[in-house]
Amino acid sequence: MVASERLLAFAAMSFLLIVVPGPSVLFVIGRALAQGRRAALTTVVGNTMGAYVLVVAVALGVGSVVERSVLVFTALKLVGAAYLVYLGVRAWRKRGSLQAAVTTDGSARRGDLRALWEGFAVGVANPKTMVFFAAVLPQFVDRAQGHVVVQMLMLGLVFNLIAVACDSVWGLAAATGREWFARSPRRLSLVGGIGGLTMIGLGVTVAATGRKD
What we know:
By secondary structure, the protein is an all-alpha fold.
């Protein structure tokens, strides 16, 4: 098991990294602005599930492959960036129909599944997160205690619990602002467009940044 002091140190480091808005936060905010509170929170859950898949991959040794291979890292980065741009373009194109989405809940289940899947896909295709886990998790593992994989999974769980809390706060805050815009179809269309552009910009940023080696 992970020693309490190591766990607290990792939790503090994770919180400092998570509380600053990054790609996952901007993605959640974009979804909150485009589709509201429910979609934002469902996206947070999906994103966290995807991130934990990365934790499992790192714990099993797959993360080191991404960390060391420029080709694999670049491929994952571009796939994630392209998917973000696709989601942003779709949100932009559908911005005019947001008023009906606010007043109608007939396809809520299908929308929830889609938001969950999209959040998961973005979370699992985030190469920066995998590299972070690959670089940081081993530093907080006490190999003398044994059960290295279990320790990594526990640390990853702590990280994701903190991420769920922080990302949910951002999503709820953005969705609250959207509710004011929902009183006017024109304003709602505007904020839906902003949400779409946010995701497009995020995708372009992810594609343009990262390792250069």
